[in-house]
């Protein structure tokens, strides 16, 4: 097959190493996602006069929930046959294996607890802010996947196809869809739409609207892009919809419910007043 017109992709996922310490693009992008996310959400918390300690606690809740949820998501959704026989490896996160749907579920559980124990406000008050940062983080995560030559697309002859020379698949010389870029671009568009909605419209006063649009932007596009991606596990080969698509459907349904309800309810003032508000 003629490969002249295709993009040969074989970057070293490691930026540099110092003895046993290795700095990789994926880890760098992951850290950047958390730092930028912290900055963005903090600005929104300031806008609503939320106490500073709320932001500090939110960072811990989300960071822990993302890692635990993504790891357990991979274990139960994609690798249970293996991990049920090797339970000691479930905690070995450094060996790889994180699932975005598991991370999403973990964050939902964490924000439910956070709302009950910290803010004493609706989950949607927090989620409408947090998902803007999560959309941006998703961009960085998929760019990290690109640098790792993982989560690659299915074979194709489109002129922008990538030849993932370091991908762990049969026939890595075959040109494939750069599915990581497709997702990164769609998530970036989602982020731009959400940040515009929050700062330039009254969407924040329609509780749940921003969260609902986020779910559409992330999970509806995920369902579509999965059609041009390699399945992550062998058991998915016989499925009409793969695991990623099946797990995305409930989130899309939830999005429809949230958006519908946001227009049925009256506008609210999201600012914190009284003893809970941020001290000047």
Automatic annotation (TrEMBL):
The chain crosses the membrane at residues 23-41, 61-80, 92-114, 126-144, 181-199, 208-225, 245-263. Its EC number is 2.5.1.145. Keywords: Cell membrane, Lipoprotein, Membrane, Transferase, Transmembrane, Transmembrane helix. A 1,2-diacyl-sn-glycero-3-phospho-(1'-sn-glycerol) binds at residue 142. Signal peptide: none annotated. It comes from the Bacteria. InterPro entries: Lgt. One of its GO terms (cellular component) is plasma membrane. It is an enzyme of class 2 (transferase). The keyword Lipoprotein applies. It holds the Pfam family LGT. It is found in: Cell membrane. GO terms for molecular function: phosphatidylglycerol-prolipoprotein diacylglyceryl transferase activity. It is a multi-pass membrane protein. Pathway: Protein modification; lipoprotein biosynthesis (diacylglyceryl transfer). GO terms for biological process: lipoprotein biosynthetic process. PANTHER family: PHOSPHATIDYLGLYCEROL--PROLIPOPROTEIN DIACYLGLYCERYL TRANSFERASE (PTHR30589:SF0), PROLIPOPROTEIN DIACYLGLYCERYL TRANSFERASE (PTHR30589). Belongs to the Lgt family. Catalyzes the transfer of the diacylglyceryl group from phosphatidylglycerol to the sulfhydryl group of the N-terminal cysteine of a prolipoprotein, the first step in the formation of mature lipoproteins. This is Phosphatidylglycerol--prolipoprotein diacylglyceryl transferase. It comes from Alkalitalea saponilacus. The lineage of its organism: Bacteria, Pseudomonadati, Bacteroidota, Bacteroidia, Marinilabiliales.
């Amino acid at each position: 097959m003629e490969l002249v017109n295709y993009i040969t992709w074989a970057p070293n996922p490691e930026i540099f190493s110092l003895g046993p310490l290795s700095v990789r693009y994926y880890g760098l992008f992951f850290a950047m996602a958390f730092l930028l996310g912290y900055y963005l959400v903090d600005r929104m918390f300031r806008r609503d006069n939320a106490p500073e300690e709320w932001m500090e606690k939110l960072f811990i809740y989300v960071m822990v929930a993302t890692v635990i949820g993504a790891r357990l998501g991979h274990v139960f959704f994609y690798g249970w046959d293996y991990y049920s026989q090797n339970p000691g490896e479930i905690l070995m996160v450094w060996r790889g294996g994180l699932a975005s749907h598991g991370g999403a579920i973990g964050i939902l559980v964490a924000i439910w607890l956070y709302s009950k124990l910290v803010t004493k406000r609706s989950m949607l008050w927090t989620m409408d802010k947090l998902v803007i940062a999560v959309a941006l983080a998703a961009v960085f995560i998929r760019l990290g996947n690109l640098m790792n030559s993982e989560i690659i697309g299915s074979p194709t002859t489109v002129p922008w196809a990538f030849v993932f020379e370091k991908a762990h698949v049969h026939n890595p010389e075959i040109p494939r869809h750069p599915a990581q870029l497709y997702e990164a671009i769609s998530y970036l568009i989602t982020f731009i739409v959400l940040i515009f909605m929050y700062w330039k419209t009254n969407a924040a006063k329609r509780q749940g609207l921003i969260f609902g649009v986020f779910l559409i932007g992330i999970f509806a596009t995920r369902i579509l892009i999965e059609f041009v991606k390699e399945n992550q596990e062998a058991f998915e080969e016989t499925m009409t919809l793969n695991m990623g698509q099946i797990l995305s459907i409930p989130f899309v349904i939830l999005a429809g419910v949230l958006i519908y309800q946001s227009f049925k309810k009256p506008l609210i003032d999201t600012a914190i007043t009284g003893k809970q508000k941020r001290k000047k």
